[in-house]
Amino acid sequence: MAKTGHYERWREDFALVQGLGIDVLRYGPPYYATHLGPGRYDWDFADQVFPELKRLGIAPIVDLCHFGVPDWIGDFQNPDFPALFAEYAGAFAQRFPWITLYTPVNEIYVAANFSARYGMWNECLASDAAFVTATKHLVKANILATEAIANVQPNGRFIQSESSEYFHAVEPAAIKVADHLNELRFLALDLNYGYDVCGTMYEYLMDNGMTREEYHFFLDRNVRAVCIMGNDYYATNEHIVYPDGSMFVCEMFGYYVITKQYYDRYRLPVMHTETNNRDDARLEKDGRVWLEQQWSNVLRLKNDGVPIVGFTWYSLIDQVDWDSLLTENSGHVNHYGLFDLDRRIRPVGEAYRELIKTWSGQVNSGLMCLRK
């Protein structure tokens, strides 16, 4: 947010959103700078931006935790995190009682994977035990925050933005590995929605530190009735898997096939909560082609009876250092935005604006994501 200049140019950025015809925006306050300690909050930035969104008629889908926590909490291994986060979520809802749409914790699977299996973010651990711990704390935080917000805003709806993955076995010897990974991709949503996992996944959880009591916390809670399942899809979401667990990216099925798998598992309303591709006409699938492809997948799902309620392009403004997943502070600009860093519209931005104009009244309004 700082590298894109949003903290200084947020009024201009919101005007760009409005100019595209977008009336729903995935957006959140900076958690690291807002939650100062137990029961202590700095609402200065939030008190500026959210009233402006309300004035402009843009409904926020409020993203409260996006891949990290304030330094004083530590990381996702902290067992106090779920209760502390729920307190924060409840306090936010009390301060802005008119807001009804939330993503309490964004992409739990990715946050736990990169923090506790790949050793890249937050706790920088790389083990199954650390991954299970991070996952259970993140999901518990999401559930407790959902309940805390619902106590304040009974009309609240909660969108679980989750990476929709698939793992393809390259040969018969890789099937067992791919099967495990294909169950693991569901784990965060399984726990969040109280879906009873398969026997081998239950053994995996017990072997890596989850207790029976903790597992039953997730089975016994029920937030499904107020949830929309958000599926994020990029060209990097599908993987060819080798017997030793190594893999490489290879887009094969696409958003339709993979999202249908998730819908058949949970039977909840669906939102396409993130996608993009680089806006470069030299690519076989540049931003405009990718936008058309994703939108066609959304329409096909809707026509085939899947209750899909929204579509999101991430992001409004070009990104910085996402090519290294923020592990390097090199200032490298990634051209995935609808606008560049000077706030000049890109061709994909023009295509997105036209898509919204053309389809307005035929399907739900255009949705997009400003931050990640």
UniProtKB/TrEMBL annotation:
The keyword Zinc-finger does not apply. One of its GO terms (molecular function) is hydrolase activity, hydrolyzing O-glycosyl compounds. GO terms for biological process: carbohydrate metabolic process. Pfam families: Glyco_hydro_1. InterPro entries: GH, Glyco_hydro_1, Glycosyl_Hydrolase_39. Keywords: Hydrolase. The keyword Secreted does not apply. It comes from the Bacteria. PANTHER family: ALPHA-L-IDURONIDASE, BETA-XYLOSIDASE-LIKE PROTEIN-RELATED. This is Glycoside hydrolase family 1 protein. It comes from Massilia polaris.
